[in-house]
Amino acid sequence: MSLEVMLNAAGLAFVVAGARWQQADGQIVFLLILAMAASEVAIGLALVLQLYHEFKSLDADALSEMRGAA
Amino acid sequence: MEVTFYVAAAVAIISTGLMLRDLNVVHALLYLIVSLLAVAVVFYVIGAPFVAALEVIIYAGAIVVLFVFVVMMLNLGEHAMTQEKGWLTPGIWIGPSLLAGVLLCEVAYLVVRGGGAHLEAGMVTPKQVGIVLFGPYLIGVELASMLLLAGLVGAYHLGVRTTQKMDIQHARDPYERRAAFSGDPLLAGSDRPSRTP
Lengths: 70, 197
Description:
The complex is a heterodimer of chains A (70) and B (197).
Chain A: H1 2-20, H2 25-55
Chain B: H1 2-21, H2 25-46, H3 49-73, H4 80-87, H5 94-113, H6 126-133, H7 138-171
Helix pairs in contact in B: 1-2, 1-5, 2-3, 2-5
């Protein structure tokens, strides 16, 4: 969620710059940021679900191994 | 005219700060929604109505709903019911609804006031955005589509394992055991036991 806030701030900066100089480029970049945020959220939440199934907890300290379970 | 901009920006900052401060996920999500709506109002005042609409539809409509789904799915324990009841006490609505009410008054003021609801810098119309988007930025659009496809495939790949586990459990159910394929596709499965136990 904090990542979303940061992406939103970056997009706001782009749109404000685009409005300042009367260019549509800022809004284009905001669209690209929006697409990236959407796909990133989908993958991140799928990862969270997978980890919850694996460890039955959301404690980040439990995820100290990178060895696959399979 | 600039007053609306400053009010919306203040609402966005306050709600974001409250979101970061909140320890409860659902309360933080409420503040996040208010923050996104405030940023949408800021976009509208600045002169970018297209992006404002996208902000409401995609961010507040799709991404936050995804967050809410996952937060609710992760608490499927036995004590989840009481926990969710604790989340949804009436008191928690006061802060977000107060901020959202400020935003609503502001939007109503903008609508009643009519045209010219933008700062002096002028607005970038959706038509300009579309022309530039499918002109010089066509390759960017293609890259975004490939990124979304990769996100789709990745999310499916990460989510499919849990459903496969469920399928295995399902196949162990004696009434759902699959019949042997006898080589004749017309009669395949005809000797399957009935689904009703």
